[in-house]
Design brief:
The structure is a single chain. With 134 residues, the protein is mainly α. Helix content is 50%, strand content 6%. It is built from 6 helices and 2 strands; from the N terminus they run E-E-H-H-H-H-H-H. It has a two-stranded antiparallel sheet. The two termini are 24 Å apart.
């Protein structure tokens, strides 16, 4: 499944992959936020301090840093660190670099959409490669 990210870095709209497990967590988040009247109808999944505005980049950085600290990670982290980690895990699992570039939303006018779709279909579901294997 794909998640639409509006007004991302550089003001661009993007799509991000969404695993079934994360989808369930986000649905639970949405239901609880609605139950508590914290999320507005038709509003943002992650509202900012003002509920009619999205979570700001600065607020997101703070959340990522707090999560890293809670996990005992001492290195400096940012939302971009998560992007690099995702790409690194996929690369280590043998996913084609062009597929990873497509998943990360890299603009590549030299590769037409059918080429990207074919690369994605050959790779299967890269999110399955990222799931914990305990």
């Amino acid at each position: 499944m794909l998640l639409r990210v509006e007004r991302g870095k550089g003001g661009k709209d993007r799509h991000a992959m969404l695993s079934p497990q994360l989808l369930e967590l986000l649905r639970a988040w949405w239901r609880e936020g609605r139950r508590r009247s914290l999320l507005l109808p038709g509003g943002w999944l992650f509202p900012g301090r003002n509920p009619v505005e999205p979570l700001s980049a600065r607020q997101l950085c703070r959340v990522v840093r707090a999560a890293a600290q809670a996990a005992g990670i001492t290195k400096r982290v940012s939302p971009h660190t998560l992007r690099h980690s995702f790409a690194t895990h996929l690369l280590e699992q043998g996913v084609d670099i062009r597929v990873i570039q497509t998943l990360l939303g890299r603009d590549r006018p030299s590769c037409p959409a059918p080429c990207e779709a074919a690369a994605l279909s050959r790779s299967g579901n890269p999110l399955q490669l990222c799931e914990c294997r305990h």
